[in-house]
Amino acid sequence: MGVDVVTTRPGDGVSFPKKGQTVVVHYTGTLTDGKKFDSSRDRGETFDFAIGMEEVIKGWDVGVAQMSIGQRATLTISSDMVGAAPRACLFDYFIYITYY
């Protein structure tokens, strides 16, 4: 249980966000059955949040903190890291850090 980060495109490998820094991401969230429930790309807007400040689900704070700038990854997040999840055990997020 927790967060599994699978890199689909490496980032710079040097610039990792620190607690309190703002990250700007594009994401697509799907349930375990592949059904998409949210996407910043569909809205044409990035999403930003401060790492480690509990502004997002714990799985994002933990997973995105492991990503370097420019990295694309799929985060598989267990239910204990998502809060009140509707009928799901795992969420898959495709996240791309654009800058912070």
UniProtKB/TrEMBL annotation:
It holds the Pfam family FKBP_C. It is an enzyme of class 5 (isomerase). Its EC number is 5.2.1.8. The keyword Isomerase applies. GO terms for molecular function: peptidyl-prolyl cis-trans isomerase activity. Keywords: Isomerase, Rotamase. The keyword Isomerase applies. One of its GO terms (cellular component) is cytoplasm. InterPro entries: FKBP-type_PPIase (IPR050689), PPIase_dom_sf (IPR046357), PPIase_FKBP_dom (IPR001179). It comes from the Eukaryota. It catalyses: [protein]-peptidylproline (omega=180) = [protein]-peptidylproline (omega=0). Residues 20-81 form the PPIase FKBP-type domain. This is peptidylprolyl isomerase.
